[in-house]
Amino acid sequence: MKSFWFGWAWLLILAGGCGKPATPGGPSLQSLVGRWERADGGYVLQIDDVQPDRVVKAGYFNPNPIHVSAARAVADGGTIKLFVELRDVGYPGCTYQLTFDRNPDRLWGVYFQAAQQQRYEVIFNRLQ
Fold this sequence. Notes:
single chain, Lipocalin, nine-stranded antiparallel beta sheet, 1 helix, 9 strands
């Protein structure tokens, strides 16, 4: 239950506009756009766009498409954070809470596997 509330608290922070604009010289939210592959397998997160309201147009593939029910990004100073929620068969509210690291151009963070109530540290490397 603790992990459920942690995920929702993170989502509320992103949705509530608590993030500040990116600092000059820091990465922009558009830095997220591209295809990202999880280092431990063929999972692919595709970011097509980050809109001004911080809603992210995203796809997730394993290798077939998995429904992305919510995705948001926020720049907090020089840090970009990304929240992605998956809702599909076998993905009952699974979430990613990721941070963008521009050098070495990767996303890292935690994957919450909702059906198993387990958390895993993950890294995504940019494909393109």
